[in-house]
Amino acid sequence: MMWMIFAIAAWAFGWWINMRLARGRPVRWRSLAAPIVFGVTLIAIWEGVVRGLEISPVLLPAPSAIAVRFGASLDILWVDFVQTVLKGALSGYVIGCGAAFLIAVAVDRFPFLQRGLLPVGNFVAALPIIGMAPILVMWFGFDWQSKAAVVVVMVFFPMLVNTVQGLQATDTMQRDLMRTYGASYWVTLFKLRLPAAMPFVFNGLKIGTTLALIGAIVAEFFGSPIRGMGFRISTSVGQLALDLVWAEIVVAAIAGSAFYGAMALIERRITFWHPSQRN
Amino acid sequence: MKQSFAPVLTVVGLLLVVWYAAAIWLNADWTYDKAKRSGEIVTTTSLIKDTWAQDKPKLPAPHQVAAEIWRTTVEKKITSKRSLIYHSWITLSATLLGFGLGTVLGTLLAVGIVYNRTMDMSVMPWVIASQTIPILAIAPMIIVVLNAVGISGLLPKAMIGMYLSFFPIVVGMVKGLRSPDQMQLDQMRTWHASASQTFWRLRLPASMPYLFTSLKIAMAASLVGAIIGELPTGAVAGLGARLLAGSYYGQTIQIWSALLMAAALAAVLVGIIGMVQRITLKRMGMAQ
């Protein structure tokens, strides 16, 4: 009962703080503080409800239990992180995005192919590509190579479509200007069209970050060595060790947010001229 | 549309050629292996013939997959456990339920975010952060946990679809509901419109183009969610179960047919939304 009251009090308190934050002038620290307060409130409510209703840890462990487990099994989590994120997701991401980028630049020289590739690429990007995972695991074996392959296939089409679209982003006036300067294809590409395509390219890169993590983890469900986040999640669910599963989820969430954040940061540095990046 | 018809056909044709070539390349090992054991000599024609007609090829040729789809859709009874239509229906129902729930949740959140500053400041960043969590990765756990508390069948799969599809709806609808500019809002005020009138007559209609774009993304996401949601249920029914069963028994043709079926499903669903979009926007006078 005490814990339920705690949960309700936490909710009321968090709401009150955010009401006050929202009412003030929108300065930078306020807009940073509001979501943090919201998150902390959510965790407090979670803790209170789990303890108050005495929910079995087999169903939903309390945040404190997850934190304890997280601290206790750092070594396992690190091994899984290296296997899934660094070996599987990251290598696949680099290969997939790199290949898509180069192919998009190559296809760009042939308007005919390009007109055909855009609809097909858009279509494929909307498909449940993750279903390719069992096939690729069959082809490339159980280790990280197959996970990287799944990631390559998953990030390829969003990246391709975005880059092709980005390369079309310059208007005729700008290209004509380059022509009056007597610029060659390559000069035009590097000085005008690639920079102009960057906002689109980063859009593709950012979409790819989440896809890469999902691909690498889900591919492990179809077969993996005895380490990796997907492997740990599926076996821990079987052992009803949900606190470990949640610890893996925390790792995945941190890795995903950091990955996305890093891309957004690089985007800010490179496309500083774009209206959406200016203050 | 007509203009891009020939290029699209060319690209699809190219893909098919690559597919057939890859089938020869990937399946050749098995053919050579078999020929060595029986002492036959492999010629180019017999190699091509064999690699395109293996029972469990590494990569089945397109016509093998097409034949399998034909066999499991048209020639099987719909109620049969082997019918792809039956499995597609299972997946489709979970997809549609998840899509519906996600749309409702996403729209409500978007309205809350647009009308309530507190929600805008505190919830919106978390909506974005929620998508960096690879939800598909924890789908098995959600299914198992929901099963343990007595929720089984359609709903757990739909929940995953909902989680994936509410996000594009929230983002699109927030953008859409905010798309009327100050001039239009002021106009409503000079007409002394109430808040609900402003919502129903200005903000909601203005958000329609954004809504439909989001709906298409949400539908595709919900389908992926439903397929992944079927994996941990022990491969009972649904396209995801067909994928898993196929990968257990090395039935590559079955995997590919389930995959193409899922692709067709996605195409049809997104196509339907596109059609509704065109009709609706035309009747609202917003067609481009």
UniProtKB/TrEMBL annotation, chain A:
<feature type="domain" description="ABC transmembrane type-1">
    <location>
        <begin position="82"/>
        <end position="267"/>
    </location>
</feature>
<keyword id="KW-0813">Transport</keyword>
<comment type="similarity">
    <text>Belongs to the binding-protein-dependent transport system permease family.</text>
</comment>
<protein>
    <submittedName>
        <fullName>NitT/TauT family transport system permease protein</fullName>
    </submittedName>
</protein>
<keyword id="KW-1003">Cell membrane</keyword>
<dbReference type="InterPro" id="IPR035906">
    <property type="entry name" value="MetI-like_sf"/>
</dbReference>
<keyword id="KW-0472">Membrane</keyword>
<feature type="transmembrane region" description="Helical">
    <location>
        <begin position="32"/>
        <end position="50"/>
    </location>
</feature>
<dbReference type="GO" id="GO:0005886">
    <property type="term" value="C:plasma membrane"/>
</dbReference>
<keyword id="KW-1133">Transmembrane helix</keyword>
<feature type="transmembrane region" description="Helical">
    <location>
        <begin position="120"/>
        <end position="142"/>
    </location>
</feature>
<feature type="transmembrane region" description="Helical">
    <location>
        <begin position="244"/>
        <end position="266"/>
    </location>
</feature>
<dbReference type="Pfam" id="PF00528">
    <property type="entry name" value="BPD_transp_1"/>
</dbReference>
<dbReference type="GO" id="GO:0055085">
    <property type="term" value="P:transmembrane transport"/>
</dbReference>
<feature type="transmembrane region" description="Helical">
    <location>
        <begin position="148"/>
        <end position="169"/>
    </location>
</feature>
<keyword id="KW-0812">Transmembrane</keyword>
<feature type="transmembrane region" description="Helical">
    <location>
        <begin position="90"/>
        <end position="108"/>
    </location>
</feature>
<feature type="transmembrane region" description="Helical">
    <location>
        <begin position="200"/>
        <end position="224"/>
    </location>
</feature>
<dbReference type="InterPro" id="IPR000515">
    <property type="entry name" value="MetI-like"/>
</dbReference>
UniProtKB/TrEMBL annotation, chain B:
<dbReference type="GO" id="GO:0055085">
    <property type="term" value="P:transmembrane transport"/>
</dbReference>
<feature type="transmembrane region" description="Helical">
    <location>
        <begin position="126"/>
        <end position="148"/>
    </location>
</feature>
<keyword id="KW-0812">Transmembrane</keyword>
<feature type="transmembrane region" description="Helical">
    <location>
        <begin position="89"/>
        <end position="114"/>
    </location>
</feature>
<keyword id="KW-1133">Transmembrane helix</keyword>
<dbReference type="Pfam" id="PF00528">
    <property type="entry name" value="BPD_transp_1"/>
</dbReference>
<feature type="domain" description="ABC transmembrane type-1">
    <location>
        <begin position="84"/>
        <end position="277"/>
    </location>
</feature>
<feature type="transmembrane region" description="Helical">
    <location>
        <begin position="253"/>
        <end position="276"/>
    </location>
</feature>
<keyword id="KW-0813">Transport</keyword>
<keyword id="KW-1003">Cell membrane</keyword>
<keyword id="KW-0472">Membrane</keyword>
<feature type="transmembrane region" description="Helical">
    <location>
        <begin position="210"/>
        <end position="233"/>
    </location>
</feature>
<dbReference type="InterPro" id="IPR000515">
    <property type="entry name" value="MetI-like"/>
</dbReference>
<dbReference type="GO" id="GO:0005886">
    <property type="term" value="C:plasma membrane"/>
</dbReference>
<dbReference type="InterPro" id="IPR035906">
    <property type="entry name" value="MetI-like_sf"/>
</dbReference>
<protein>
    <submittedName>
        <fullName>NitT/TauT family transport system permease protein</fullName>
    </submittedName>
</protein>
<comment type="similarity">
    <text>Belongs to the binding-protein-dependent transport system permease family.</text>
</comment>
